[in-house]
Amino acid sequence: MKLNIKLSTFLIAVSLIVYLILYAFLQSERMNVALISKILIFNLLIIVIFFLQYEPYSNLRKQYIRISTIFLLGYCVVFFQFNLDYVLGNVGESFTRFWVNYNIVPKALIISSIGLVCFLLGYSIKKQFPTRKKIEITPSKLSLNGYNVLTALFLLIYLITINPLYIAGGYGVMEMGEPARFCAVLFELSFTAGIIQHILNLSSDNRKEISPFQFVKSLGLLRLSFLIVYTFTVLASGDRGPVIYLATGIVASYIVLTKWKISMYKFIGVFFLASVIVSSLTVLRNNINSNVPISVRLFEAFIGNNKSGGYVSLENINSISGSTLELSTSVRTLHIAVNEVPQNRPFFYGKFQMLKIVTIIPLGQQAIKYFFHLKDTELTSEKYISELVGAKKGSEGTSCIADLYLDFGLVGVILVMFLFGYYVRFIEVEALGKNHFGKVISIIAFVIICQYAIYIPRATILFNLRNIVWVWSIIKIVNILTPKGKQRITIE
Question: Measuring CA to CA, how many Å separate 149 from each of 156, 190, 424, 468, 471?
């Protein structure tokens, strides 16, 4: 059964009104199972309505590997799983580090629910975009040598400058080093730029019907060697995020090229298999000096004996999803923000968003810090939230809703999540919905945001803006430097 687009959009809009009314009357309601469960059930109903919407583009029907689906999975884990575990009795009120204040938990849950509804409303408000009379881009082949040189250069500098103690299981304990961190980012983005150029080349050759294995093989031994070396250093450090992002980027690029689909059941299975693998890597990271054999530690991770990712107080929780329990604890960042602002501290009125935008310019954030004499804790919501809880080392992290709330309050959550939903729909239609390739900038945006979609809920909405602009710039520069006589692509 599929719902009419107008009807489903209307129902989502009505749910927003319901939540706004709840927000007005439940400002200081104490958390309780009955209230939390009702909100979660209502959220489930809204999500079901959203997924029952009629999809006008055949390429997007039953296409689950896309930004909106992955983002919603991550969003539900970050903002709703810990609350669901509370309703099911898996988490009690004794976990005060994560609840922060019992009287703000319902308010925080309603704010995150409003963020969800606004994203769905923005995504649904305009399901179809007009087909341009003139196709914006006809992909042409371009040598990948320029991308290979850049990728190799950044990887080499990264390996030379990285702190050896960081590679030896030092993630979260030792500093990587700023030069190495910067080169790691440039390596990831130049690698992704090369993948995007590669799918443009394959499209030009009309090689759109190739298997996933053939696609990976077509990347070439050299580029795969770069990826393997970088993956080894990341996993050796105890991190796993960059590996997930790069792998997701390869999959997203393949889908843009071939419009390949998998069933919902396979998609959910792959998601939870990946989460179990990530959880296993976390166990290895947190027991790097353990005398327990590695095979035993991995087995314990798979059967769920260690799910906490370093939070000792969570080890005995029989969570509904142990492999994503660590991710779900990011909800504490929203609780911290709602507990302090605006009761004890003022809003930032866009400072965090502005400072995220200026990261498009290399060293732009550092320059603003110097000229305006800003504290480190005023640069990002991650550092500010860490200061709120008195963290001297490490970081409490952040979440997309906490980041928006600290800047603009509920109004910022409503507006930005709505616009983000609208933009996600636009680039999904541009990159996947139509049979021809759209603008390269739309393809870049799709691949980049899809790469990090699972991470966005526990990060910020705008952090991908820099990555999109930098990948676009890399492709532009390589095109400009391509020797005369070589075919080049238009990326305006």
Answer: 10, 10, 32, 20, 15
